[in-house]
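Bug: token stream looks shifted between consecutive jobs. Job 1:
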Amino acid sequence: LGKRSAWRQSEVLQKWMNKLTEEVVDPATLEQATEPEVRALGACYRLYRSQLEKTNSLDFPSYQLETLRLLQEHPRIRQELHLKISHILVDEYQDTNSVQERILKLLTNDKQNLCVVGDDDQGLYRFRGATIRNILEFPDLFPNKECKQVSLTVNYRSHPEIIKFYDQWMHRQKWHLEDKRFRYKKAIEPRQDTFPDAPAVIKIATPEDGNHHQEILAFLHRLKGTGKLTDLNQVCFLFRSVKHHSVVALSEFLERNGI
């Protein structure tokens, strides 16, 4: 937890509690671990679950966990739902977590009535407990290769140069570790169309600790001065984290210089 305020420590602990609920982890399993940190986590989780029960409360992951228990422990309710549901379609399947996958399996009742759509390259919600393994291992849920896979490889949104850059970059990365894979093998293609003959991709690579504040400031002024921008609000900066020290330093520098 580090030397943080009690409030910040609570936030960190809450993320761990959510993760354990979403992965349907039994606290007893954690409490039997050899590592003292894992045993401590198990004790925290047991206490947290008991506090929820004591106050008759549910957090968001508990809604999902209680739904799973309802389907597991009450066959009559499960059967009623099977009669009502003919097919299930799940979009953005790469953003599901373990408890959601278990709920889906119980709702389908082993019928071949489940269709999932997703892109393993767009796993955006890992911070919320989503696991990319759900979509990568989805075919393995069904024996005898019953799962039919349809590849959707045409990108209807982007310029061909953007797609080419993306494909080349992704193919240079390592997507295997021992017996685990982290991506379906694929090559994305642009739609058949005519596109503007203009640069679509600009790649800038700088050292992690590089300071290019003056160059960025001059670039913004040049865009404004040549009329390519009518308002600086037309500029958007994208960062992996807005709290990174280099991002904060750039923000403070631009503010000191009137931007």
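Job 2, same session, no restart:
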Amino acid sequence: MSHHQIIIVGGGNAGISVAAQLFRKNSKLDIAIIDPADKHYYQPAWTLVGGGAFDLQKTVRNEADVMPKQAKWIKEACMSFQPEKNEVTTSGGTYTYDYLIVAPGIQLNWGAIKGLPETISKNDVCSNYSFQTVPYTFEVLKNFKGGKAIFHNPHTPVKCGGAPHKIMYLAADYFRKNGLLEKADIQYWSGAARLFAVDKYEKTLLEVCEKANIKLNLMQRMEEIDGPNKRARFVGMAESNMGQETWVDYDMIHISPPQSAPDFVKSSSLANELGWVDVNINTLQHNKFNNIFSLGDAAGLPISKTGAAIRKQAPVVVGNLLSLMENQTMDNSYQGYTSCPLVTGYGKLVLAEFDYNNNPLETFPFDQSKERWSMYQLKKQVLPRMYWSQILKGKA
């Protein structure tokens, strides 16, 4: 078994935790991880960073420090796949594999909104979606004196589906604590058809919106942002407003960039019609190439793209890959578990956990649709520590 060459594309949460789990099962495996990154980020905490409630520096480590020691690190960018030849081409060369795990994460398409790259982190245009931009979010909140506060959710899938509105609830709470809520016109402009996909949790979130007088504008795609004039252009996507253009003025705006699978995945024969890696949603094995698996944000799975989902996907990939290598039946199955810890204010959180059918799959013996201080502490104190010490090391 040890002579099989396994290549993992992606040195994020998914790639590293899978490698760690594979080594725990068989320390002699030959595993190479392709990733050009110098830094490794714990991104779930960026919502709290944007709200001024978490230290940004605690969300970053050197990639070299989290790479499994037994893995060969190919510090190059993946460019293309040649699955018919069992090859991956990078910025530095071509590598052959016996088994391939595709876990490169998601691509942030800042340029998909006209004017966004030029105005991000100035003109009160903020975003929690990158290490570089997230500190400006709290600057904007602190400088807000009243007026129109816009929170945007794109028309594409995004990593951490709750993030675009979590910062809105924190902002509303921040304004409330600073006597500004009455002066704030908070609006949510979203490319989705509803606030949240699971009824049980959406009910609570709608109540949170009602308390802060947040106005929801759904099925709206952001096309353009004009930073100097502080206005954004949206185009309607519903039958009732299809193609209708609206320019919205703002005093502050939080933008979540449109997202997609990385270009090298989208343009490859591994992709489905939407550009994601075409895998069986239960076994996570590729539908066409049986020596390829995928997990994480780039995998074509009909579920929210979260770190919690990866935690349940990783053991399935590991178990099924090892079974395949031994010519045994693959009996590990992923049922679509995902989790969105929905911060609804400082010290308040709704822990949404659900499956492919949007049925709640809850961990705790209480109603998780209620806002709880204990769940906020889980997000702020427990999960970041657990990520670095347990999850990345394949222990959780």
